[in-house]
Amino acid sequence: MGISISRRLLATAASLVLLAGAVAGTTAAQADGRSGTQGYSGSGHHAPDTDLAEDFNAVTRNTDWQQTSRLKLNFPTFHTEGIAYSQDHIFLSAVQILEPTTKFPTPQGGYDRTPGKGIGHLFVMDRAGNLQKDITLGEGDMYHPGGIDFDGTNVWVPVAQYRPDSSAIIYKVDAATLDVHKQFEVKDHFGGIIFDKQTGHLVGNTWGSRRFAEWDLQGKELSTWENPNYFIDYQDCQYVPNARMLCAGVTNLPQTPAAGGTGATYELGGMAMIDLKSHGVIRDVPFQKWSTAGHVATRNPFKMTAAGSHLTMKVAPDNGDEGNGTEILTYEADVAAAK
Fold first, then answer.
1. Side-chain half-sphere of 128: how many Cα atoms within 13 Å?
2. Quick check: 199 pLDDT over 90?
3. pTM to 2 decimals?
4. Cβ atoms of residues 279 and 306 within 8 Å
5. Measured between alpha carbons, how far is 130 from 26 in angstroms, rounded to an integer?
6. How far apart are CA 204 and CA 209, in angstroms?
């Protein structure tokens, strides 16, 4: 009798150990973005975020991107900046300009231009693009929202002055309740941000993405580094496991005399994968597809997902008063099979 009870106790203890291990494994997977709302890709072997890191490394200049949908937004969107997707919502950041900035003949007080005036918006839509809420963000001269990121729970939004070498507020918006929390303020214009799920830290990029900074959630700066790449200015980024960020953007280049001279510009678009540990650019490629208003597609809002060896890109390059107004464009492409 005693031996039987002992064996049952041992079996129960072993079962508890196995259950604890399973729970720990599930928790670790969720922290790494491999379960929860992320789900699994059609390949059956990789989570979508993991596919994205592998698949983007197969993107080349010759990748055949096809536009597969065009979602017209039927509300004033002003100048769009960043986009993010949760399970229930589309989030779109935008700036409404009330008074444009004006450049000084020479810098004044450390600034190269006036602050201007404006209103920062974070539009919350359902997945069909219907406006559900317009969240106003910013304080004083800080009214310019930038590129945004969704970490699985919160949307992170930087709102800066509309001039370099200035200041910004970092906001956290709960994607389910839409509650807004002012996380901290930073010195300098930060026009984009991502949440590093591996470290629990935030990484932002400054005006023209010339510099990056990493902070803890209390706003303590942990590191800063110069951008080694001058190909494009990053406008909107996202975290990609493990310890990478994927960015897209644009640079305006002068035209030849026959095409209008230096008074006219040409928009060069592109995307880049950055290693958050080495700070190097792993891969960058141009992207030259155009919007209704004639902007390169990666001009501002950008997000990408992957399933197996299939990539899907969402962009919204046009302002509300251009072309057909703001449209969320979807591009898709197949690349070499993920390893």
1. 2
2. yes
3. 0.85
4. no
5. 35
6. 9
